[in-house]
Design a protein that fits this description.
Elements: H1 2-12, E1 18-23, H2 30-41, E2 47-51, H3 59-69, H4 85-96, E3 101-107, H5 110-113, E4 116-123, E5 129-134, H6 151-157, H7 161-166, E6 169-175, H8 179-187, H9 196-212, E7 220-222, E8 228-230
Parallel strand pairs: 1-5, 1-6, 2-5, 6-7
Antiparallel strand pairs: 3-4, 7-8
Length: 231
């Protein structure tokens, strides 16, 4: 999969700063893919890898947002609206223009796992390739949505369109069976992590979204072994 994606990217690179958006479900291997792409491209390009996870709201804002939602899907970070979209947009624009940029550092272990922003890393050089990855990156709002279960998610998803408009190369990975996502994510739980019931409750909101949203356009479909079965 990784080599195939590298070929796709190389064919689409421009002379300007490229922003590569990588959509892929949890556990599909985005982190491994990003390391591979960095190793393959960094000799010829200045490259930076960002995740939607880097741009989660800081603790107090996140806490206030989730309380205001008062929704069973919004008990924890991860869904649309839990990211600082203005900061992400400004970060991408600054990196494009070669302006000194502060990249947020989000510590997921802070506040007993609730998480908090703990600082920034400074980037002060011309960037040729920005890789931005996220499990919901690229999802589009459902027009005239009538499903109240996803109403908050769908409305907040509209805020991400300015980010999507900056992306000039899309890599869209999905799987042939949603059960694969559950098993990938479960196998990634460290020893001493969530028990199975806690884990199922944690994953429920994500699977509501996985079942109701999909990516349009050219997609790479992988099986349970993360092998490409369809492009």
């Amino acid at each position: 999969m990784n080599s195939h994606i590298l070929k796709i990217i190389k064919m689409q690179l421009t002379d300007n700063t490229n922003i590569i958006g990588i959509h892929g479900p949890q556990g599909v291997g985005k982190t491994t893919l990003n390391k591979f792409l960095y190793n393959e491209l960094s000799n010829d390009y200045n490259i930076i890898i960002l995740s939607l996870d880097d741009f989660y709201l800081p603790y107090q804002e996140m806490n206030d947002f989730l309380k205001d939602c008062n929704n069973k899907l919004y008990k924890f970070r991860g869904l649309a609206g839990t990211h600082d979209i203005k900061l992400l947009y400004d970060t991408l624009i600054n990196l494009q223009n070669g302006i000194k940029t502060l990249i947020p550092i989000f510590d997921k272990s802070s506040y007993n796992g609730f998480g908090d922003r703990i600082g920034y890393n400074e980037v002060n050089k011309k960037i040729d390739i920005i890789i931005l990855e996220g499990w919901m990156l690229g999802y589009k709002p459902i027009v005239d949505n009538q499903d109240m279960e996803i109403d908050i998610f769908n409305n907040n998803l509209k805020k991400y369109e300015n980010i999507h408009n900056l992306i000039n190369i899309w890599i869209m990975i999905e799987t042939d069976n949603l059960d694969n996502i559950f098993n990938w994510r479960l196998s990634g739980e460290p020893d001493g992590g969530m028990n199975i019931e806690t884990f199922k409750n944690f994953m429920k909101p994500y699977f509501v979204i996985y079942n109701k949203y999909t990516i349009s356009g050219n997609k790479i479909i992988v099986d349970k072994n993360r092998e490409i079965i369809r492009v």
